Amino acid sequence: MKYQSKKIGEVASVKGGKRLPKGMVVIDEPTPHPYLRVVDFSDHGIDRSNIKYIDDEAFEKIRRYTISCSDIYISIAGTIGRVGIVPEDLSGANLTENAAKITNIIENVDHRYLMYFLRGPVGQGEIANRTGGTSQPKLALYKIADIDFPCPPRNIQTKTAEILSAYDDLIENNRRRIQLLEQAARLLYKEWFVHLRFPGHEHTKIIDGVPEGWEKKPLGTIAPLKYGKALKNDDRVPGPFPVYGSSGIVGTHTKALVHGPTIIVGRKGNVGSVYWSPDDCHPIDTVYYIDSELCSFFLYYALQQMTFISTDVAVPGLNRDFAHSRSLLVADQKILRLFEETVSPLHQQMELLKRQNTSLAKARDILLPKLMSGEVAA
After folding, report:
1. pLDDT band at residue 49 under the 50/70/90 scheme
2. Is the pLDDT of residue 310 over 70?
3. Which of 125, 151, 177 is the last residue of a domain?
4. 235 and 109, same structural domain?
5. Which of 38, 155, 214, 312 has its CA 20 to 30 A from that of 45?
């Protein structure tokens, strides 16, 4: 069944976000005013790991540029075409000038349905076709309003959205379980190697913060950092191997640069970010990586605790010599082996849940265009 087509501008308004006033900055300390940036938009919604805030004074100047949980956000600069809905607890957050909101959506259109259309292959194609071909492409608001979408009766829209959101709910539940497992491993690392409450600590002599049998070593003597290799977007061929930048996985490719497991460390951009890749992958030139045979879960969590920002470096970025000079407290082999044996099952569970999420996302993405076209009845 072919559904009637409508333009987004016929059923809603498209409004832009707002740049912070000159002299005002985002802050890490939570306030009643979250400020959502494109970097906070992810494939599953809002990434809460590094949300920024603004103070009351800044909010008063841009208070008209907020987004509601009944709106749809869409990134219009930088990584263009990220689409989603903010959760209820972030309703009223301020929105960056690099994003727009689809708001005032009429009652006959389910905002979740419209969001899924824009996330799907047809919607993403419409967005790509309307993005300017300049060196700094941007998606104009009027071009969003001009996008056509299939508009079945409201009850079919709602059923479609509920079917697709059931997949997303399962994915989100798995994602939360992954976060809890990683948090458990991170807390265990802190308990043993930061607070020094490791098994047998009661009977171990500790001198100047170093337990007997342990030693402090420069990172460079334990696990030298190697440079990733540039791989431009135009040169990437989608394939089985994840491509890592300083913000995490940024795509896939048909060839891997390094064998897994490996640890990736942000060199430029998100400096000092740390990622664990259990599989072969391609780290690009904004990151370092550590050879597979030197990787361990101990090292992965230790790197997350290290301070990699040097005030002496004029150019932002992680200097390798500086990173190699950072001191790391290394336990004896018995404790290190016990930590690996304890944490390894947690990571195995995480990888299983990630694979489940990949399968769920693929099933959802196959179903989405069929539901939108009416090929499969909702």
Report:
1. confident
2. no
3. 151
4. no
5. 155
The predicted model gives 299-326 an average pLDDT of: 83
The answer to whether position 291 is within a domain reads yes
Per DSSP, the three-state class of 159 is helix
Spatial contact of 117 and 152, defined as CB atoms under 8 Å apart: no
What was the pLDDT predicted at 313?
Answer: 53
Statement to judge: residues 52 and 124 lie in one domain: yes
Count of structural domains within the chain: 2
Sheet with 83-84, side-by-side order of all strands: 13-16, 99-103, 72-75, 83-84
Do 142 and 251 have their domain in common?
Answer: no
Nearest residue to 326 via CA among 307, 313, 311, 312: 307
| Same-domain pairing of 237 and 119 | no
For residues 146 and 9, membership in a common domain is answered with yes
Could you tell me if 222 and 315 lie in one domain?
yes
Assess whether 9 and 143 both reside in one domain. Answer: yes
Residue 376 has pLDDT above 90, yes or no: no
Choose among 113, 109, 134, 146: nearest CA to 14: 146
The confidence score (pLDDT) of residue 3 equals 82
- Which pLDDT tens digit goes with each residue over 130-174? 986 666 789 999 999 999 999 999 999 999 999 999 999 999 999
Largest CA distance in the chain: 77
In a domain, 282, yes or no: yes
Please name every residue paired with 13 in a beta bridge, in sequence order, or none if there are none.
Answer: 103
Angle of CA points 152, 153, 156, to nearest 5°: 80
Q: Are residues 24 and 116 in the same domain?
A: yes
Identity at 116, one-letter amino acid code: Y
Rounded-to-integer distance, Cα 209 and Cα 223, Å: 22
More confident residue, 59 or 378: 59
pLDDT in tens, 232-261: 888 999 999 999 999 889 889 999 999 999
CATH number at residue 29: 3.90.220.20
pLDDT at 2: 75
144-177 as b/e: b if 16+ CB within 10 A = bbebebbbbeeebbebbbebbbebbebbeebbee
In a domain, 360, yes or no: no
- Domain span at residue 61? 5-151
Report the C-alpha gap between 199 and 187 in whole angstroms: 15
Q: Average pLDDT, whole number, for the chain?
A: 92
Query: Do the domain assignments include residue 12?
Result: yes
